[in-house]
Amino acid sequence: MNGVIVSSLGAVIAVAFACAIGSLLLWMFRVPKAVSADVAKARRSLDSATLILVPTVGTPYARRGVELACRLAQEQRAEILLVYVVEVPRTLPLGAALPQAEQEAEAALATANEVVVLHHLPVNTYVQRAREAGEGIISAAKDHRADLIVMGIGSRAQAAHLWGRTADALLHRAPCEVIFDKLPE
Fold first, then answer.
1. Bridge partners for 167 per DSSP
2. pLDDT, tens digit, for every residue of 148-169?
3. How far is Cα 181 from Cα 36, in angstroms, rounded to an integer?
């Protein structure tokens, strides 16, 4: 009686093992669905982003830009570089002490950093000094060899100010792809 149970159990284990190996081989050798070369190229171009630069100023629309960058970065485990540009007036040297602006930069970067940490992505923060925000973002993108810039922008009134200088500079002179995320009204 014991021998029958053992041999039956052995047969069941052998069948289960054979089914598992068979399904594994079917999965390994299945041919993926064919896609056009253009589709494959579009997917590959986004997969190549290893460093995503996200300018932030601590506003809700800037945090939304950070969230979008995190979602784009998750599949390829890209690194997020959070940048705050301190705009230094032309009447002062670039290295001039601006304690209020530096405190705002640290607070905005800390909040944005929390968003990235929630996604378990590698993150670095950086304070860039420049005369204009657009130039500072471009300089940071070049210095850090960013593959993509993701920037959240606000509603129409806020966007009007942004589209004047910063976005124009990014659209014309950024060394990489740029994505703008406009917060709905």
1. none
2. 999 988 776 555 554 567 878 8
3. 28
